From TrEMBL:
This is Rhodanese. InterPro entries: PQQ_CXXCW (IPR022376), Rhodanese-like_dom (IPR001763), Rhodanese-like_dom_sf (IPR036873). Keywords: Signal. SUPFAM superfamilies: Rhodanese/Cell cycle control phosphatase (SSF52821).
Length: 172
């Protein structure tokens, strides 16, 4: 099976609860809810297709899962090996410093190559990855691939997760 076959191009959401979105179209409430359609300009990628790619070589893997509110000390998360963690950068109504951190970090990690594929993920049924994928596409990154099943889908394939810490220079 080829990667292209396993990727699903899906249109932006329709019929969603309008109060869950801001005027710019980002989800701002109820982040843990089913996500069926990729944002406009973004392609959904299946976990099996993502697993065939080498992080940092074939694509840049970006994890946007928020920090566990119960975490004490330096936050850590089990994530896809080789992924870069930008916690909370998938929120709607994002703090401008967090948005600059995400986009600046992706620019640094891609060495400014906006054509390097970027795979954005969180957990299964997490709108934060949807928001972040949309944000990166709007910032000029193409292609942006959305791994809707997130690290949960990766783990469900029997693939390992590894501990990771947030990317450097995280805004407080």
């Amino acid at each position: 099976m080829g990667i292209a076959w396993m990727m699903l191009a899906i249109a932006a959401p329709t019929g969603a609860n309008a109060s869950a979105f801001d005027s710019a179209g980002y989800r701002i409430a109820h982040y843990r809810a089913p996500t069926r359609r990729a944002p406009e300009g973004v392609t959904r990628i299946a976990p099996e297709a993502a697993a065939m790619l080498r992080p940092g070589v074939d694509a840049l893997f970006i994890d946007v899962t928020p920090v566990d509110p119960g975490a004490v000390g330096k936050p850590e998360r089990m994530t896809i090996p080789g992924a870069h963690w930008f916690p909370d950068s998938g929120r709607g109504g994002i703090d401008p410093a967090v948005e600059r951190w995400l986009i600046g970090g992706v620019t640094r990690l891609t060495a400014g190559r906006a054509a390097m594929p970027v795979i954005v993920f969180c957990l299964a049924d997490c709108w934060m990855s949807w928001n972040a994928a949309r944000r990166l596409h709007r910032a000029g990154y193409q292609p942006v691939w959305w791994l809707a099943e997130g690290s949960d889908g990766w783990r469900d394939l029997g693939l390992r997760l590894e501990p990771n810490r947030p990317e450097r220079n995280r805004p407080q």
